[in-house]
């Protein structure tokens, strides 16, 4: 309202007078200090010059006496007396000239103050640029420069008036859908949904910051606030995501007739592989060869992909640690899988199967485990297709699990979830809920 505006205007006017008075006082103080320095330098130089003048006068007086004595000796006609007096005069002249000072002033009046430079052109420009301070322009997050690991995100941003910025503040929260994706107008007023859920990193002096301790495979919203004495402005909100938790195949759990690559990312059926000692954790089925990842997952969202190559008989999914190791995964209540048996593609859990419409040349399978939201989803990443989602009430940590009958599989872990996956919102799947027509004839796939 008008009274409030009048009060604010009066406050700014009073502040202007106060600031200008302080500047004038500083200039007066500096003027007085510099004048004192000039006066002190002048006194010092004049004192030094006066001392030199006195020394020169003494030297001149002594020289005058010697000259008069020398002229008197030159008038002596007695050669013996002349020689005796001349020797004495010569010694006195030599002593006088050896100890006398050069009659040239040490002080050059033309450059008596050459060590001073009264040039205030820079300060004049600063004073001419005096203006009221405004809040900085909003910074801009450079998404193409931002990097991530499975538990960190490094945010980079730029600002076109960074010299007027005293610090930055980074704010972030987990992205839970469009409901908490803040609009620009809301950001400018700081009206956040679920304010308590936002994490704030204050007093950042650089144009980048690394946030640690984030959840794997999770999307976050980031906002950067530029701050100075006049106020602050926020960047547009930006969505960034952490990568999934990386893992490798665990050789201690791998079937005896599987060969694991040196990098732990590829498994291959090998009947001639060396015998391995039997352990309760090792897969031991006679009609299937299984392996598992070297992690157990109990939180977060994780995505990995499996390259099947030319394999036509496999099962890929997750399982509890307690799942039986002597049968195909998915045939019990402790495992969930996407499976292929020659030309048939199914999803399986607790020995119940469902056909899935899949391109017959499927060479890569995407697996998304959203533990916190109790979902396991399968995707065709080459065609950006959602294949199926299991609704699971997880009660224990789960482990990525892989089983093959022929050829090989390769694991790609630690990946960010593809952009076409907009979890946790449910997408249509390519499943047919009817009973699989080949379930009764699946004995060869056990």
TrEMBL record:
B30.2/SPRY domain location: 227-420
GO MF terms held by the record: transferase activity
SUPFAM superfamilies: Concanavalin A-like lectins/glucanases, Fibronectin type III
Organism annotation: Sus scrofa (Pig)
Domain of life: Eukaryota
Alphabetical list of InterPro entries matching this protein: B30.2/SPRY, B30.2/SPRY_sf, Bbox_C, Butyrophylin_SPRY, ConA-like_dom_sf, COS_domain, E3_ligase_FN3/SPRY, FN3_dom
UniProt keywords, alphabetically: Coiled coil, Transferase, Ubl conjugation pathway
Protein name in UniProt: Uncharacterized protein
Domain COS: 74-133
Domain Fibronectin type-III: 138-245
Homology family: Belongs to the TRIM/RBCC family.
